[in-house]
Amino acid sequence: MNAVVSNLFKVTPLNPSIGAVIEGIDLSQSLSPDAQHFIDTALLKHQVIFFRDQPLTPVQHADLARQFGQLHIHPIYPNIPEQPEIMLLDTALNDLRDNALWHTDVTFLTEPAMGAILAAKKVPAYGGDTLWSNSTAAFAALSLPLQNMLSGLTATHDIAKSFPVERFGNDPAEIEKLQQAKIKHPPVSHPVVRTHPVTGHPALFVSEGFTTRINELDSKESDAILKLLFEHIQKPEFVLRWSWRTHDVAFWDNRCTQHYAVDDYRPQHRVMNRATLIGDRPYYMDGLANTTLPSGA
Questions:
Q1: Which of 65, 164, 174, 293 is 20 to 30 A off residue 17, Cα-Cα?
Q2: Is-contact 252 119, C-beta < 8 A?
Q3: CB atoms within 10 A of CB 240
Q4: How many independent structural domains does the chain possess?
Q5: CATH number of the domain that 112 lies in?
Q6: Quick check: is 81 in a domain?
Q7: Is 86 inside a domain boundary?
Q8: What is the value of pTM for the model shown?
């Protein structure tokens, strides 16, 4: 695919639906207004963007993320002690099997993440790829009758679905941490179809990771529709697969994507650091909002 060059920055799309590689930006330094605008624009257009050869320290990682919003601290996963906003995803420390299913991050929050910035610190020699799917394209590919049925419905998202006690309750301290997380984050409802607050485009906003039922349907109907949607989001036409190198950085729009961390590399060791950006409350607006993407990517 053709790359787009703007001054010193270059964006190369990875496939027609989702993903691009950005060159010409040093993420360890404070971003210029032009660089920040270029990243914002590329993120809206491509939904997940990648940067190679970016050896960020935890402090640099947090400083980078703060240029795009406030940071969230995960209630269960460990973090970097000297930089608590940076979540530590280390296979030597964490049970990461919950990432090996399609999910949108922290939708158990009333205001789920706007996005996340993931830095690869140690990657296996082979395996350990991550897949992203375009939830906007997935919704657009549904039949119009199904789109109409889903639009305006709500669904329940529950932290317990991805963080069960049998996997995250190995000792009394972990059990207490899990229980406190569930008390602080009771199940919440979000629209099944979410309107993107910037582009105005509708996107599916249910995932296997956290969505337990569609509230307006009975349990059998809900199970059937969710199964259909969970399988639909995985269609190759909507999906990008990224093979990590050490010091790669990925930045994705959590409002209109799902992702899946392939768990095929054990017993190799994999370490990733993640900064999660606080978002806003999801909503559904009937019809496409009168908004356009900014120019530049």
A1: 65
A2: no
A3: 23
A4: 1
A5: 3.60.130.10
A6: yes
A7: yes
A8: 0.92
Catalytic option among 157, 190, 259, 270: 259
* Per-residue DSSP letter, 152: T
In whole angstroms, give the CA distance from residue 180 to residue 174: 10
The Cα–Cα gap between 188 and 208 comes to: 15
Q: Given 63, 105, 158, 248, which residue is catalytic? A: 105
Is 105 a known active-site residue? yes
Alpha helices in the chain (DSSP H): 33-46, 58-66, 135-140, 144-150, 165-168, 172-184, 219-232
What distance in Å separates the CA atoms of residue 243 and residue 265, rounded to the nearest whole number? 12
In this structure, how many other beta carbons lie within 10 angstroms of the beta carbon of residue 227? 11
Is 4 within the bounds of a domain?
no
In a structure prediction context, what are the per-residue pLDDT tens digits for the chain, which is 297 residues long? 566 655 679 999 999 999 999 999 999 999 999 999 999 999 999 999 999 999 999 999 999 999 999 999 998 888 999 999 999 999 888 766 656 789 999 999 999 999 999 999 999 999 999 999 999 999 999 999 999 999 999 999 999 898 877 666 677 887 888 888 888 989 999 999 999 999 999 999 999 999 999 999 999 999 999 999 999 999 999 999 999 999 999 999 999 999 999 999 989 999 999 999 999 999 999 865 434 444 445
Catalytic residue among 103, 185, 190, 194: 103
**Amino acid at position 91, single letter:** T
Q: Which residue range forms the structural domain that includes residue 240?
A: 10-277
Answer yes or no: 266 catalytic: no
Annotated active-site residue in 72, 157, 196, 274: 274
Measured distance CA(133)–CA(161) in Å, rounded: 21
Q: Which residues lie below 8 Å from residue 203, measured CB to CB, with a gap of 6+?
A: 135, 136, 138, 139, 193, 194, 195, 196, 255, 256
